[in-house]
Amino acid sequence: MVDRRIPVILVAGFLGSGKTTLLNHLLANRQGARIGVVVNDFGSIAVDAMAVSGQVDTMMSFGNGCLCCAVDASGLDAMLAKLSEAEAGIDVIVIEASGLAEPRDLIRLMIASENPVIAYGGLVELVDAAEFESTRKRHPELDEHLGFADLVVLNKTDRADEETLAKLRGTIDEIAPGTPVIATSHGRIDPTLFFDARPRERAGQMSFDDLREEEHDHEHHFHTAYDSVAFTTERPLDPRRLMDFLEQRPGGLYRIKGFLDFGPNGARSRFGLHTVGSFIQLDRSAWPSGLPRRSELVLIGSGIDTEAVTARLEACVADDPEVVDERGMLRVLRFIQD
Ligand SMILES: Nc1nc2c(ncn2[C@@H]2O[C@H](COP(=O)(O)OP(=O)(O)OP(=O)(O)O)[C@@H](O)[C@H]2O)c(=O)[nH]1
What we know:
By secondary structure, this protein is of the alpha/beta class. It has helices at 19-28, 47-52, 74-83, 103-112, 132-138, 142-148, 162-175, 192-195, 208-213, 239-247, 306-314, 326-333, and strands spanning 6-13, 35-39, 59-61, 92-96, 118-128, 151-155, 181-183, 202-203, 206-207, 226-233, 253-261, 270-276, 279-285, 295-302.
């Protein structure tokens, strides 16, 4: 019998590995398929949800906190129930987990769901080719995450040389033998991989039955070791001060994402910011109409002094909101990748 249930695919991977980028690629190349999306932001500003919205008309955002720690599955279930209503005509649902989520618990939530019209469709785990080796040293748990994957996407191949990539493939094969690996950049994978997804009978070392019975073990989640800071200001930032902050960011501050306002400087004066590890990337676009001009950042790190980070950001606010420091802007523009 043909299984007509809607597959729910989890997209996971450590902070900044490229989950939102992959999701946006998928949405832009959906070939007529209707994709429902659940986005889980770790910080209290829904940056990922902002990056995905506009691309899709059926998105739900599960903000501020890790989906894997939803005390019971009901919040997620309610979203999935809404997305899987017949009128929505959804073919596949994709859940973008936060970069600190535990795939094991997300899979458990999925298989515990009593919704008869959806089915767990497997785990797509992203690996950041440039950062994986060092992240894995800090978080050996990542090996277990790979073990649960039905598909590994080795992303950011443009940021690693051939030798590193070959070594990474060997490592992934050791950790998750037999799991298909797709190497790519900017999450550009074949979207059809998502449309007829069926997971393996078991997730990693565990059968679905084992997973169903397992207790939720919050203490060992690695997001318990991470803090996030949300920073918002309506006042323009000073480019020099902000770049000083970015170039000398506190150790442990692994991920920053959001939008920056440096005041009135041209039509495309909304600056998107991403940092992942030591990497900094900025892009620029116009402010969407109806959206207030303001800077909004989420900063995520381990062992960071959140008050000190907030104080340093407050010190980046420009003295005069009407005057843009043009020379200071050159330091910002150096990082633009349009
Ligand atoms: N050079 C390069 N950059 C990439 C690639 N894929 C994504 N990025 C960049 O990496 C940064 C993080 O990408 P996201 O897609 O936001 O990563 P994420 O996994 O959703 O991040 P979190 O939700 O914070 O965990 C952004 O600056 C992306 O433009 C890639 O293949 N190559």
